[in-house]
Amino acid sequence: MCGIVGYIGKQAAAPVILEGLSKLEYRGYDSAGMAVFNGETIQIKKSVGRLKVLEELTHGGATMPGNVGIGHTRWATHGAPSDVNSHPHYNASETIAVVHNGIIENYLPLKEKLVSKGYQFVSDTDTEVLAHLIDYYYKGNPLEAITKVMHRVQGSYALGIMFAEHPDQIFAVRKDSPLIVGQNEDGCFIASDVPAILKYTRKVYFIENQEVVRLRADHMHFYTVDEEEITKEPVTIDWDADAAEKGGYEHFMLKEMYEQPKTVTDTLMPRIKDNDIVIEELGMSDDEIKAIKKIFIVACGSAYHTGVTAKYIIEGAARIPVEVDVASEFRYRKPILEEGTMVVVISQSGETADTLAALRESQKLGHKVLGIVNVVGSSIAREADNVMYTWAGPEIAVATTKAYSAQLIALYLLAMKFGKVRGQIDDATFIDMLESLKKLPSQIEMLLSNKERIQRFANRYVGAKDVFFIGRGIDYAISMEGSLKLKEISYIHSEAYAAGELKHGTISLIEEGTLVAAVATQDALFQKTLSNMVEVKARGAFVLAVTNEGNTDIEKAADYVIYIPKTHPYFTNSLAIIPLQLFGYYVAVGKGCDVDKPRNLAKSVTVE
Ligand code: M6R
Fold first, then answer.
1. CATH fold of 3-237, please?
2. Per residue in 178-221, pLDDT tens?
3. Numbered ranges of CATH 3.60.20.10 in the chain
4. What is the reported pTM?
5. For residues 414 and 388, what is the distance between their CA atoms, to the nearest angstrom?
6. Which helix H or strand E contains 309, and what residues bound it?
7. Ligand 1: which residue has its CA nearest to atom 16?
8. Maximal C-alpha separation, the chain
9. How far is the CA of 153 from the centre of ligand 1 (A)?
10. Which residue lies with its CA nearest to atom 4 of ligand 1?
């Protein structure tokens, strides 16, 4: 989604903004722009296309002198990607410039009102309404104008705003879209996310909903929507700056896949103590765990897929009924959350608009929410009643890999903890499962070391039209993620099916040579999946199978087999997904796709 960077200080603003925006490229965007105060006026340059177009247009920022500016990468919502729809947007006299991430839901009635008062619009965006509305309320006091606008608009927004009449200030505003501010000895910064300003400062302030920040070169002031000044505590970011760099890998996605053994270790090991699982952040006593009647897991995309895996494990290991829902459905379907229902939301970014809304909806209905979140200090992390962090570090590639693996670990730990406390897992099994968990990092490493073989196989499929992934139980959940990995970065049509469901319609799409990836890691379901493989092979499919070491029977039905090391059946997802991630990655690389920044996608989906 859109990225915002702003700077006011001793340095030239444009290069700082360009550099910051480049660190936000992972969020996904289709155009970029900057506004810089040049001593007399606010100069704006913007263009559809990649950031390098803006860099060329401004000669790396050299043609936009000045120490105060705001910049933006736009992911189009209202109005097609075009120069004119790109941000920043001006008021008519070009004395106010605005960049925006989010959606102004009531922009049409506001636009009509403004038009009736003589305002003229040049773009199709909702954002331009903000520029004109600020202009309408502006009587010399920027803070007053901004807060009046905040009272009028509905929707979500993170804003960077500058006024030609107040060139010693920029403003940052937030509601339901992420925004942080930071400061060093040279100046102050606005950014949508930490990596944009990590080079300059590690001390950041997370802006809460409906707060306004006035940034000057040497200090910042925070205000409520009612213009009352407030104090805020900074948070020190302790990431290694290199964590947000490629570190010699061709793509962030490859680097992040290779970080999975560490991610799994970091999420797992601090929570294993004396052969027990200790999840302090859960904030639940054993009695409370025993009283859970149902668990609702809500998430989007890959995080949803980890929820589907968790359903099988929690129901199997803890005997608690689990319902899993995609957040965009959950929030509007009047979910029935009975007493005793625990809600778990899962999100890498902690900013996904639908997941955040689902969290709020659950809290409104009187339920406590556990957030499984990667980004420390994100909206979901702050609003959830309890937070279990996945310690995956910054994930930059749009296609998630390491955060997905970390989420699985967090969910395994929850399932085992609940199973043990509720007397569903005996001590011997529990210890056996813990041992299996501890082996996962080295097993993942081993699978990653096999990448050349997968690459050779993937190269054969760069021209594929359709690919199907099938599996049963947990293998179905793995198939969903394998399919998403392939399609989101390679643009090859792909679907995941519960293996037994394929013959209820979809099997008619199988033609000579169609690739079907069958995941068969669950011994109890092995023969059933094998039959489904035979069915598709008989109709001409080329069958790739992913199964456990030793299951050589599969070679009768498969054309190509990838074996994963033995683990507990509940944990096979963590291993089977590795070759599928590599497969998706190498198909995309083979096709020459922009692997880290796939078209139309955003890393952090902050609009619904
Ligand atoms: O940040 P979140 O985990 O809430 O994001 C959820 C989805 O948008 C995300 O998993 C998405 O599906 C990725 N592109 C998958 O690779």
1. Glutamine Phosphoribosylpyrophosphate, subunit 1, domain 1 (3.60.20)
2. 899 999 999 999 999 888 998 999 889 999 889 999 999 999 99
3. 3-237
4. 0.78
5. 10
6. helix 301-318
7. 399
8. 79
9. 28
10. 347
